[in-house]
Specification:
Layout lengths: L5 H23 L1 H28 L3 E2 L2 H6 L19 E4 L6 E4 L18
Length: 121
């Protein structure tokens, strides 16, 4: 009968720890929550950029994050982190009413990807 040595014990513990590291995020939806928070953060940044655009130019905003980036209101373009490349936010700003709309392209699928009402002025 072979002995159970320290190397086998360390290997077993490492495998168990690796298993928990891989399973834990899916079990508690940690990644989903992080992606929702990042999406809301992106929309908040875009909202502020549109507000600055409308205040400085005194006109409506109709365009994309790329347009805001070219005019130096954003440092980069933003996309929803949920599904990857090409997920552009819908954005619009009405100077007359002060209304700014920024919505996630996956708003119907992920209901937590919405700007809070307290943020919308």
């Amino acid at each position: 009968m072979k002995k159970f040595n320290i190397y086998k014990l360390i290997s077993l513990i490492a495998i168990i720890v690796l298993f928990f590291i891989l399973i834990l995020p899916q079990t508690y939806n940690v990644n989903k929550k992080q992606k929702a928070e990042q999406c809301i953060k992106n929309m908040t940044t875009i909202h502020k950029a549109i507000r600055s655009y409308m205040n400085e130019r005194e006109e409506n905003f109709e365009g994309t994050a790329r347009d805001l980036m070219r005019m130096n209101y954003l440092k980069t373009t933003y996309e929803c982190p949920e599904n990857g490349v090409g997920d552009k936010y819908y954005m619009y700003g009405d100077f007359e009413t002060g209304e700014i709309v920024v919505t996630c392209p996956h708003e119907e699928k992920f209901v937590d990807h919405v700007l809070p009402e307290s943020f919308i002025e």
